[in-house]
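Worked example

This section walks through a single chain of length 537. The input is the sequence exactly as stored; nothing has been trimmed or padded.
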Amino acid sequence: MLDRGEFLRVPQNQETPVQVARGRAVAYRYAYARAAETRAAGDVGQDYLAVREGERSFVFALCDGVSQSFYGDLAARYLGDALVSWLSDDLRSTMEQQTIRADLAACLRDLTGPATELVQRHPLPPDIPPMLRDVLEEKRALGSESTFVCGRLDLADDTFPAGRIVLAWMGDSRLRLWSSGDDPPAALGGVFETAQRWSSRRGLVGGELNVFVAPLAQADRRFSRLVAYSDGLAALDDWGKDPSNRALQDLISRAGEAATSDDISFLEVWLGPMPVQIGAFPLPAPHLLAVSLWEGRIRAAWRPVPEAQQYEVEVRDDEVRSWKTPRTDWESPALPPGEYRLRVRAWRDGGPGEWGEERHVSVPQPAVPPARRIPTGLGCAAIALAFIVVAGILAVLTLPLSGPLHWFVFPTPTATPTPTSTPTATATATLTETPTLTPTGTPTPTATSTDTPTPTPTETPAPTITPTQTPTGTSEPTDTPIVTPTDTPTVTETPVPTPTDTPTLTLTVTITPVESLTPTLSPTMTGTSTPSVTPIP
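Given that input, the structure is written out below as tokens.
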């Protein structure tokens, strides 16, 4: 609860849910919440809210300490109390905006001396690491800083027959002023920028002090509601309608659950009757009829709630997801596998109802049929390598003429082949065979006789050589030429090495007294060859 001393101060070391107060001059409500990280550490919040009531006036200051400075909560608290004191006791009874701006700016400059002494005296925790202590001492030299919004409302009296409102600010905390009806907030002028602030060492930083001064009532309008809150409650920016206490507390709770949560301070003042929806009772909780799972999607159905305009479905795991629907049944999008908690509540006039019971739902991992599995990159590589090895083995066994599977794959033809190379003869003379077809890559061997006698062979007419191919690749001619030499010399032959081509075809002709030719033939060619004997002198 508030400390009801000279000021009404909201504690910085605990959460204060939405509270409604009916003061002597106006009615108002306020709330305070620390950031999630601050709550977990048990530290005080950087925000500060102070209020002071009078018989015909209401004064407030809402400050947001800068965490990058030296103990921003220290500057927020010191500045907030000083602003409330000045607005209560030292503000002149004038409507001149420039006069009020100059007076308040001078006050803020004068605060730097006492504030600097306060910062210098502030003790550091004794058990902090040396490195952190050095960092804090560097920040101490730069001072403690805070943004702020503040103001004073004066009801109509002899001094201000139409009443008066004075507002001043530095920084990005929100400040909204509404007239009666559904009019948009009034234009206050000035700027709301994060870089603007007050420093215990330098005074005003980032620009000129922003000030707004106006009567509460004029011929065409009357201000009816003032709202101020820190940037931790930025979710309220989009609310045009005054939220109920229930809706406001829900917004504060949701903001505190966010990963980027910040301290929250909130104040709202009504210059007329309090809106009816502020204290409206929430709608009862919906009763869940069924919760099921289908292909990674959660389905839910519930009984309708009277007067409900829409429903909110919340699904939680490590994070919070929510959806709005006007129906009484709902289906989620596909959710990742995991454990979830689901609950539903109704909404009416922008205010949420009570949450219903919570249901637990497990979304399993999707099953993958084995037949549909696709080989991994390693499996594909293994299959490709096995295919290449098998293909290579078959090629080695099949393609060469000497391969064991060559004649199985390429059977013996019935056509009469023609030698595809010049034979190499072993004889007493040089035998040159001229085939009718010229093969490609065929070497021409030469046989040399060392005997000087000249043989005179008696040869029958040129025979036609028609070899018959055997499975071993050797063919013998059907007609053998007979050569009768006059002298039988002893011949020593030094053949020229036969170059190897792929495939290698070798024709070997051996001439003895009964000469035989053993060519290696191409099964696709036919023709005759006429050997010629050239004696060597």
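What to look for: Residues 26 and 271 are 6 Å apart (CA to CA).
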